[in-house]
């Protein structure tokens, strides 16, 4: 049976040279979340390992919530709302945030999850202006070399 936990992957696209500003603001949000939102089980901020050829970076958020209600509480918090307002007012983003959400399914052992995340985050991001994506990406390619059982 699937868990009630709710997972979010958020990908932020700061303008060139603005990544550190966005990261500082995200760390303020993370401090608030840690102290005030017990329904947030994990809130991980990750800087892309390989910027594009133009020096553009991504920030990848890996978030885990107790349930969908905890996600809604986080999304409507004054701190998170203020963060989004700052992003717009300070013109820090080059593209809209990409959100992927879903219920937690089978849990990988932590070491395997870390290896999977490392491989996924260290893969180069194709430049949409000069690259074409394959028609189909095999998710198993992401797991190549990752030990799934402990």
TrEMBL record:
Transmembrane segments: none
Organism: Hortaea werneckii
InterPro entries from the UniProt entry: ABM_dom, Dimeric_a/b-barrel
Pfam families, sorted: ABM (PF03992)
PANTHER family tied to this protein: BIOSYNTHESIS MONOOXYGENASE, PUTATIVE (AFU_ORTHOLOGUE AFUA_1G12025)-RELATED
Domain ABM: start-end pairs: 6-101
Identification of the protein by name: ABM domain-containing protein
Organism lineage string: Eukaryota, Fungi, Dikarya, Ascomycota, Pezizomycotina
């Amino acid at each position: 049976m699937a868990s009630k936990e709710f997972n979010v992957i958020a990908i932020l696209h700061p303008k060139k040279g603005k990544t550190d500003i966005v990261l500082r603001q995200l760390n303020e949000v993370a401090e608030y979340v840690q102290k005030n939102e017990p329904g947030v089980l994990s809130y991980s901020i990750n800087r892309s390992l390989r910027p594009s050829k133009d020096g553009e970076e991504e920030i990848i958020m890996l978030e885990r919530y107790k349930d969908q209600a905890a996600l809604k509480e986080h999304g409507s918090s004054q701190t998170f709302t203020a963060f989004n307002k700052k992003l717009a007012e300070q013109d820090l983003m080059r593209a809209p945030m990409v959100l992927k959400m879903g219920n937690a399914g089978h849990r990988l052992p932590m070491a395997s999850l870390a290896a999977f995340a490392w491989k996924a985050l260290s893969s180069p991001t194709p430049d949409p202006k000069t690259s074409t994506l394959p028609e189909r990406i095999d998710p198993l390619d992401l797991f190549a070399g990752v030990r799934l059982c402990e």
